[in-house]
Every structure is written in structure tokens, then in C-alpha cells.
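=== RUN LOG ===
request id: a7f3
mode: sequence -> structure
chains: 1
length: 158
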Amino acid sequence: MKKLIALNINHEVYEVAIEPHRTLLEVLRETIGLTGTKEGCGGLGACGACTVLLDGMPTLACLTLADRCPGHEIMTIEGLGKLDVPHPIAKAFVNRGAIQCGYCTPGMIMSAYSLLSKNPTPTRDEIVRSISGNLCRCSGYKKIIEAIGDAAGEISSR
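=== RESULT ===
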């Protein structure tokens, strides 16, 4: 049986009718059409590709039931900048070549955004810890860590 819920996603309210077992990832991608959040591990919570922010905290959307999210603020990669005006983190990822296939990128950027929102001048170790739940299968993490450091520098100089 479906139930009607209201989700606050990227500062916009979406009313959706969902089955109680549906994950936030499924609702974001299949019901609402926000496909920036990726599924990489089949819903095991092992890769971080589905990372979104729930009340500012990195959260695995594949392990979060959507019907637990009303009343919370959800931010996806779509809520962070635009194609013509990218967020400094996204811009730094491009400039550093920290994107290969790009599949992990939304989750990495959301984890980085959470860190930089709380700590605009993180150490390398703090950056590494902030993305420790995000798996990249294409590259080493060097360029990703450098990109987050570059974005921190740009954000803190504003």
C-alpha cells in the first residue's frame, strides 16, 4: 500500500506516493527523476555513490527509507550549482582531472561539501576521512583529494 509523503529536496517540496519499503535512492531516481545520485553497490551501502546530505550530514540514500525523510532537508548533487555556474567543488574536480568515469563523483562531491560546510580549511587527513566512505574504482584518490583542497582554498578566500 502506498502512502503520500512530502520530501524537501534541494529546497523544493515534492509530494510522492510511495511504498514503505522504497529507499530514498529509488525515490530520487525513479519517482522524482533526480538521477545525479548513483547506485554503485546494489544497495549494500558499500560504495558511497549514492551519498546525499540529510540535514547536512552525508547519508547513503540506498540504505535510507524514503518514508523516514519527511521533515528533513535533503540535498542532492542537483542542488549544488548549475551546469553554467558550477559549485567550486565541481569546478575543482574538473580542473584537477579528478573525474574519470564520473560515477563516484556526485557522492564524492556531496561528502566534500559536507566537510567544507563545517570546516572550510581542512587538513589533508580531514579530507581523506571525509571521503573514506566513497569508493572510486577508476583512479587513485590523489587528484580527488587535491581537488577538494583546491575547492577549500577557493571557498575560504570568498
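=== NOTES ===
The first strand starts at residue 3 and ends at 9.
Helices lie at 24-32, 88-96, 105-118, 124-130, 142-156.
=== END ===
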